[in-house]
Request: fold
Amino acid sequence: MYAGAIFNVAGNTIEIKKNSEVQDSFGIKGSLQGVNYRYEALDHDTSGDASYIGLSTTVGGMTLGYDAIDTDANSLVTEDDSSAFAVSFSDANKVATDATEQQQISVSTSLDGTSITFKSGEITKGLSSSKDMDYMQLQAKRKLASGATAVVTYTDRDQLNGSAVGSNENLEIELNVKF
Reply:
């Protein structure tokens, strides 16, 4: 059974939820002195706790950001989109199930109509119970005259090659068209 409340207090959005019989969550987001923040906490009676924090601010046309996840169990992190993180914490094909923490910094700006974002981070125990995963990502996004959007993304992350840590480089080129 789901029950919850979302309300605004002094410009902050606060969420309190009873997600299931064994899981509760809390969240707050807002802005203070030009710094945007978001904090979420999850309490699972049998699997443990998880928390997320996101901070961002804009200085001189550049948006600086910091995001972090800390969890007792990788299975508690179910967000699989990479809008916040360059490497999805819950992607079992890339990240070890021992992973417990992730931290990332980001910088984004716009240059002649092209949005450019750089992300760099680390996943604690991301490769194995004794090896962390480092990664970086550079993305450029531009609306074209046709109305389509071109997106070029380069991601470089650590990957285990046997027992040695190697590099996995990926270049994605997308053309997003709306009908």
User: Anything to note?
Assistant: The chain has a mean pLDDT of 89.
